[in-house]
Amino acid sequence: MRKDIERLPEKGGEGIILPENASRRKFLSYVGLAASVVTASSLLTSCDKDDDDNNNGVNLGSGDIGVLNYAYALEQLEAAFYTQVIASQFTGITASEVALLTDIRDHEVAHREFFKAALAGNAIGSLEVDFSSINFSSRTSVLNTAKAFEDLGVSAYNGAGKLITTKAYLELAGKIVSVEARHAAYIRDLISNGSFADSTVVNAQGLDLAKSPSEVLATAATFLKTKVNASNLPTT
Q1: For 5-229, which CATH class?
Q2: Structure pTM?
Q3: Measured between alpha carbons, how far is 216 from 156 in angstroms, rounded to an integer?
Q4: From CA 196, how far away is CA 87, in angstroms rounded?
Q5: Are strands 16-19 and 5-8 parallel, antiparallel or unpaired?
Q6: With contact defined as beta carbons under 8 Å apart, do 228 and 57 qualify?
Q7: Rg (CA), the chain
Q8: What's the mean pLDDT when you consider all of the chain?
């Protein structure tokens, strides 16, 4: 086992991978998330993930499994990004920024591991990322990318909510998207104070924007070497 991670015990599984330096407060929050994993996993045990299509990329599957794999793919991307941000910190980063960006990393890792555990044998494999367009030593490059990821994540969950048929999954998605929105607000204010809820993310009705899986994955594909096939996802 790597020295920088530890496993949070989980019923019937190997455990959820957490950063070694997670605080007690974070640890207790992950325990609650782990309990949700057990519940969600029990609902998925009788389902089968659609086969991968080698020609068209990794097939997310259909129905609720497909939607959860869609969220899992996005959380893999975000977790990988913030892990790199903390591992190779940008020039001039402050202690406060390190602390809060580390919190975000830990949240994204927890989200990723939640979906992996909940999906169990129905989960897609690990996706290969491509961060070659990001200059991790540049504050501007890192924060602009973080803004893009967080705004994308919020709009993705908002757009996928209507596709979920199982109430328990919808409730969990609502809890996760609210955390993603907190991330987005923090990152946006780091770039430009007061921009956390401007018209580019909140419409005239005071509602966060929503995007379809096809729109979201078209943007995410810029940062993925692995091709993702969402053709079997529900559309309504």
Answers
A1: mainly alpha
A2: 0.80
A3: 6
A4: 26
A5: antiparallel
A6: yes
A7: 17
A8: 84
